[in-house]
Design goal:
The protein is α+β, with helices and mostly antiparallel strands. It is built from two helices and three strands. A hairpin with a 6-residue loop joins β1 and β2. The longest helix is centred in the N-terminal third of the chain and has 30 residues. The protein starts with a helix and ends in a 17-residue tail after the last strand.
Length: 88
Amino acid sequence: MNAAWIAIVAILALATVYVLIPVASDSYLRYRRRRVVTCPESGALVEICPDARRAASSSLFGKPRLKVKTCTRWPERKGCDQSCLAGL
């Protein structure tokens, strides 16, 4: 019985090292930089910073869920629908 638990823990550890960590780190590195995008509401160029940690953690279970962490149009337009993320 002890050997079975060791095997299960070893398989989970290998899955973490070879699957989960690379997937999360790829998403984190992809979304950690600031980007200049066109704001769909105003048509102006704005600088946004996506929430890279949220993208990394959500990418473990499928497509990354993106959210704007900072934007140059904030705080006056903080409640926008963040549709500028659609092209990322």
